[in-house]
Amino acid sequence: MNILVCIKQVPDMESKFKINGAGSWYDSGDLAWRMNEYDEYAVEQAVQLKEKTGGDLTVLCIGPERVKETMKKALAMGCDRGVHVADDEFFKKDSFSIAAVIAEFAKTKSFDLIFTGMQSQDRGSGQVGVIIAEMLGIPSVTTIVSFVFDNNTITVKRELEGGLKAVIKAPVPALVTCQLGLNTPRYPTLPNIMKAKKKELLSIPVAELLNVSAHQETTSLFFPEKKGGGLVLEGEAGDVADKLINILKEKTAVLA
Amino acid sequence: MKTLLVAEYREGKLQGSVNDLMAFAQKVGSDAAMFLVGSETDLPKFQGPLYLADVKNCGEYNPDVHKQLLLDTIAKVKPDMVVFSHSSYGWDLAPRLAFALKASQVSEVVDVVDGVPVAPVCNSKLRRKVASKTPVAILTLQAGAFGLSEESTGVPVIEKISTTATGKVEFCGYEQAEMGGVDLTKASVIVSAGRGIGKPENIAIIASLAKALKGEYGASRPVVDAEWAEHNRQVGTTGQTVSPKLYVACGISGAIQHLAGMKKSEFVVAINTDKDAPIGEVADVLVVADLKQFVPILTEKIKAL
Question: What is the ipTM of this complex?
Answer without folding.
Answer: 0.93
